[in-house]
Design goal:
156 residues; alpha+beta; GMP Synthetase, Chain A, domain 3; three-stranded antiparallel sheet; 7 strands
């Protein structure tokens, strides 16, 4: 691994049952309440698996947006739908077995051809996806505003 360029921190504090409060190292950010689904928790907030899925979806969308903006193709809209699947490992322990991401982008009229370069690059710049792919398969598909596939599902 290369040298460390930046550090970040999150403070995790147990409240009650399976509820935890997260505080971040950026001033002014709201705290986040985490909880587990029934029967352990009461679903008062997302659980850690959902945060992983949200982080993957957000990171991929932000990476694509960055590339599109740099290529002077600012999208009219950009959305991500993320689905995670839970599986049991050989010891019977629950794990995230995979994450599927569907990014929907409206590049505007006549801009679809200019998307190709970004569609080939953006995943490599997503810090979160690249970091977890060693342990969790991640499939990514990009479609336009009408649902036409611009980039088929790919797992790296």
């Amino acid at each position: 691994m290369s040298e460390t360029h930046e550090t970040f921190s999150v403070h995790v504090e147990h409240l009650q049952d399976f509820e935890f409060k997260l505080r971040y190292d950026w001033p002014g950010l709201d705290e986040t309440l985490l909880d587990e689904p029934e029967p352990l928790g009461h679903e008062k907030g997302p659980n850690a698996s959902r945060l992983v899925a949200a982080a993957v979806g957000n990171c991929l969308a932000a990476s694509l947006l960055f590339c599109l903006n740099k290529s002077r193709v600012p999208p009219r809209s950009l959305k991500a739908d993320v689905t995670g699947s839970m599986v049991r490992n050989e010891k019977g322990r629950m794990r995230i077995g995979g994450i599927q991401v569907r990014l929907q982008v409206d590049p505007g009229e006549g801009q679809a051809p200019r998307l190709k370069r970004c569609l080939d690059l953006f995943e490599d710049y997503c810090v979160v996806t690249a970091s977890i792919r060693g342990g969790i398969p991640v499939e990514v598909e990009v479609v336009d505003q009408d649902g036409a596939v611009l980039r088929a599902k790919a797992e790296h």
